[in-house]
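Cont'd.
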Amino acid sequence: MNMTEREYLAQYLEGQEKRVALMSPHCEIEKTTAK
Amino acid sequence: MKSAIVVMLCVAFMPRTAQAQERPVVLTWNYDAQQKTLTLHLANYSGKDITAYNISISEKYTDGSTNPSCLGGIRCFPGEKMEEMLGAIVFQLGKGEERHGMAGAGVLVNGQRAPGTVDVERMLREYGKVFATGTTRDQVILEAKDISDVDAVVDMVVYADATADVQNERAFKQLMAMRKGQLLAMEKVNEVVKRVLADPTVDSPISAALTELTPLATCPNGRTAHRKTRSLVKQSICKALLKTSRICNGGE
């Protein structure tokens, strides 16, 4: 399937946004123990 | 004497849940003198899946010397070994997640893509990359000299539910800097790509995005308070640029 450059970049952006959604909650960690 | 025996028996048969309250990850070790390998046995008694942990380790050799040093030839803070599993999982997404039954940030349920929010814990578990609760794992270290004793402890554990047990604040800060650096880089790339795509007058959006992102990846800024974070952002943008370049090649 031939995709235009714009379509490729849009697809890439979609994947990146999913990665950001996955990563974000793991950058704000709640510490439960500090001995 | 009797009471001492009773105490020893109590310790020997102490239930694992009691250990879990002390340490979420229990570490034991053994040394194989023939193979010259030190094996660290880790057991996750925390009740939660783990996405990252840090081991502080000091080795003593039979010749009397000690080695608080880097493991496996990887540069690191002396005497510590950090395992971060989340970054690898995130960057693998989109590179064959369908083969693993996963689709982007969605989850395939009975072959159907489940709509809605990201089920991070399930995704991490099904990807098989996390240190799952109730499981064990071994880390084997090749040694140059014979070991006489090892003092090792897991002093930072970060869970898939975004909580952490932290006894080693420095290691925790390092991990957070790494994760936040990756996230900032991804957000920056997204911001640029969105802007380029929103402009209908741009003939070559990939070239335009690369033109804007490349200086961010190559311009060193080593004298600011956030040097480490900036360095990590730079590395992550470089990775993103490589992926974008592959997209360029695929489109030709």
